[in-house]
Amino acid sequence: MVLPDSLIEVVDGPEEGVDEGVEEQSDAVHKDDIMRVPGEKEEFDFAPDRLSPRLGLGRKVVGEMTETYGFSKDEEFSMIWEYGMEDKLVGYVGNKEFMKQFPKGSRGYLNSLAVFPYAANKGFRRYHGRVGVYPNGTQAWVPQEMPPPIDSVNKTAALKRGGFYLDLSNALELDRQPKDHRSSVCKTTGWDYESMGDASVVITFYNEPLSTLLRTVHSVLNNTPPPLLREIILVDDHSALPEDLPGEDLYEYIKLLPKTKLLRLPERRGLVWARLAGAHAAQGKVLVVLDSHVEVNPGWLEPQLERISESPKSIVFPQILSLDSENFEYKKESGIGCWLSWKWNMVEQASLTGELKDDAPIPSASMAGGLFAVDLSWFWELGGYDEDFAMWGSENVEMGFRTWMCGGRLECTPCALTYHIYRNGGVGYSSPDKSVWLNKLRTARLWMDEHFLIAKEFIDTKVSIGNVDKILELKERLKCKPFSWFLKNVDPTHEIQSLEDVQILGEIRTIQKHKGGIQCLDLLGNKVGEPFGVFGCHKQGGNQRWLKDRKGKQIISALDDSRCLGRDKEGNAKLYYCSEERYSENWIYNNNTQHFEHHDEDYGVTCLAIDKEPTVVKFLECDDNDLNQLWEFDIWIKPEYEPLDYSDSYKKQHFSLP
């Protein structure tokens, strides 16, 4: 893949010239040479295989660093060109504990050399020294005054700035140490650093408040052994830079962070293209992707790199626990665990992981997408991200399908823990609706084969998915397996293994007329925890379209397949998350009685019925004589499926067609 020449702008420092005696650098430097991104806000175009590096703070300063700390000529060159030493206000001094474990000049040795001086802080280790501090010892980040608890202020207004309590984030230190929530089996593991490839950590952001972004970087530097970290690449997806967001302060702060670089896209392209830009700039063996509002647990990276060294075609991800958006506490009881499936609207379906018996990697059908690690060469062999995706959304589900079906594995490393802020208050990574639907539809159409016929009922199909030639060519080149293989071998518990399993994909109607007409089961616009009911049938789908298989499991809303029909202990109709199987499973349609039976170990068998109020449904004792318990639906008949094909222009070019 070739990125457009104008895709990336590199934030560079002031050009001060080169001292005599320093070998002149070529204007064209191959992308395999490190790209240094100094701190000043001067921008220039960057083509993916040509760089124009410039000197930042000057050779005089570097010479003083070299003389002071005793770098050899080769080490000095590496520190300048590979770790941006000229662009830092603090000199690299190395971490001798790790340097002595590696041959001099090796990658592990050099990674361990690119470390700032160390200063103890509150009893926890800083693997990369004291970061965010000027040479005179002054801390650059000064926390603001601690705000009152969020419940005592206007919570809605407080959460609008970032999707979390920004005033509290701005009052917290950048260096925090999470409580170590790893299982006991994880804390006894030793690591062979020499066997692991080093990582380029790519953190993309758009309008991310400075405090959470910098806390993410500090957390990575503090908790990552130096030999394992080649660089941190921050990719700014052309943030608007209003108050509270990264701007001049970020450009200056980069000078106080070892191994850290900044790319700024000249226009907003979305998360997918921002990550691609970071991946193209990456120099490490392993690409690690992180969101811009996370903190990492001690030992977060080692299990991921170890697994990739054992299984280079595995994409791995950590357990993602919750960082509370209102009080910034570390929560182990919420978040995303190791097994993820997918929903028909092309988002992941997550579950938490309990106490571990061992530290073995856990295969997963999907992933959250914001935090993962992959061998960089395998990432490109897989085709990287789909270039025709817009902005963001469903790239994680698509990557899960693609990885498994095309010869790789997707796995959770359960001993790797991270903490993630799940934004609150309706604030998130905004994106035009059309781009979200394009990504969903493109994922389903390109990878699900005939199961697309179900998925399209959950997706807006009024958008064009664009050109498909590159993905079809990729699938042919990698000999990718069909979606039926994926379901059978990777996700065998998914509710629809075969299209023949589908019983209902449409409306569920009353047989008895109510309010002068036939009524249909309807979401009524309600959320989880609220009732469902009936409304006059309108033949428009939406709130009245349902999916049910023949195995008597769940009745799923086609408008939002996280919502399933269920009952509470009083027999009231209630919407549950489909993941709450205890309350929403075991629906059976009795063809003889035309009843919808709900089987429950506590309440026995009850039947869905229209209540006295015409829009309300309840669960009652089954009664063959009660006309309000009679329901019908149309058996779903599979439509004709038309496989995708190359475009006419592609055929003409590659198949010698007239």
From TrEMBL:
Per the UniProt record, one Pfam family is Ricin_B_lectin
Record's family? Belongs to the glycosyltransferase 2 family. GalNAc-T subfamily.
Keywords associated with the record: Disulfide bond, Golgi apparatus, Lectin, Membrane, Signal-anchor, Transmembrane, Transmembrane helix
Name a GO molecular-function annotation: polypeptide N-acetylgalactosaminyltransferase activity
The top of its lineage is: Eukaryota, Sar, Alveolata, Apicomplexa, Conoidasida
What is the annotated signal peptide range for this record? none
**What is the name attached to this protein's record?**
Glycosyltransferase family protein
Q: Give every Ricin B lectin domain span.
A: 506-634
Q: Where is it localised? A: Golgi apparatus membrane
Q: Does the keyword Transmembrane apply?
A: yes
- Bilayer topology term: Single-pass type II membrane protein
BP GO annotations: protein O-linked glycosylation
Q: Name one GO cellular component term.
A: Golgi membrane
| Major place of residence | Golgi
Identify the domain of life.
Answer: Eukaryota
